[in-house]
Amino acid sequence: MSNRANKILPHHRFSHSLGAPLARVQGEIAHVFEAPENHHGANHQHFTVKIETVLKFDGGDADISGQTVFIAVRFGDNEGLDHEIPDLKAGEPIELQGEYISIASAYPTEDNSNPVLPVLHFTHHPVGYVLYEGVHYS
Predict the structure, then answer these.
(1) Which domain of life is it from (predicted)?
(2) What residues pair up with 26 in beta bridges, in sequence order?
(3) Segments forming the whole domain that contains residue 129
(4) Residue 14 domain-assigned?
(5) What's the pTM?
(6) Given Cys at both, which of 20, 55, 120, 131 links 99, Cβ 3.0 to 4.6 Å?
């Protein structure tokens, strides 16, 4: 499966877009990594989510329900969240929206390796968000 969406979507106009499908999912946090990673000059909070429900998959035609995806939420600058999402815990429900990067297009990082998982990217304004414990982060 390609990283490219099967149609041009409004979020593709933003510089951080990878031209991928837009996914809105609900699931359960599977794993939270210990420390944020400074990646390309920005801090990211890393965790994995097992997708239980796909609420939207615009621009894609794959069935992503049941997959575990890697999440890297940018924070600490004007392009991501103001701060980390507090108290993320494995086993807790979560809802996210962002660009879906398939395994074929995902690249390994220190936390996303062995095996490399698909990625939910751009999970912050102006495209994505995270809804956790009743708080909306974007």
Answers:
(1) Bacteria
(2) 53, 95
(3) 28-53+67-137
(4) no
(5) 0.87
(6) 20
* pLDDT for the residue numbered 1: 47
Identity of the residue numbered 111: D
Domain annotation covers residue 111 = yes
Residue 58, sorted as left (phi over 0), alpha (psi -120 to 50) or beta, turns out to be beta
Token output for 57: 């998959």
Q: Give mean pLDDT in consecutive 10-residue pieces for the chain, a chain of 138 residues.
A: 61 64 96 74 88 94 94 86 92 96 88 92 88 96
**Degrees (nearest 5) of the Cα angle 102, 112, 87?**
110
d(CA 104, CA 106): 6
Burial class (CB in 10 A: 0-12, 13-18, 19+), 76: middle
